[in-house]
Amino acid sequence: MLPACRLRLALPLLAAFAFISGLAGTAHAEGANDGYIAATIKAALLDNRNTSGTRINVDSHQGVVQLSGFAGSEAEKAAATKVAQGVEGVTRVVNNVVVAPPTSMGTKLDDSLITGKVKAALMDAADVKSMQINVETRAGVTQLAGYVASETMKAKAGQIAAGIDGVKSVDNVLVVKPR
Known about the structure:
Oligomer: single chain
Low-confidence stretches: 4-9, 15-31
Helix content: 40-55%
Mean pLDDT: 85
Shape: globular
Strand content: 15-25%
Distance between the termini: 38 Å
Radius of gyration: 16 Å
Structural class: alpha/beta
CATH topology of the largest domain: GMP Synthetase, Chain A, domain 3
CATH architecture of the largest domain: 2-Layer Sandwich
């Protein structure tokens, strides 16, 4: 949980992010926009003592929220779902958070390098919109999450990640946006 002073500093930044994201986001029937929903959930995860807002990613498309990343326990994963469900405008929560034990500092550094390599390779691919893809690595397992435009893009991103040196396996939980 963030100390109150850090939370007071983080909330205005998240609100500004939500507003800016909302300008580009798609409004749905409930009138809430996805950028606002995602930022509100992220702030709530940061504020909740039972969840890590820094290890859990949040994406929203037409009120369907996808949680991804890593949690230290099943209880943390369940708490993240509960937090997301409590946000106005959320119609459904898909929790793709992986429960993984803590890793050593050396493994964390290796994972950071792998994540950077995967992100760079995705950015280099002309037919993959890499800014829509969250990439996280834990103990060599790379998770791809977010919303993409097609099955082809999802498959291509998975192939690219699998081809990066150091990636032991790919957890491709990308969701194809409904048309």
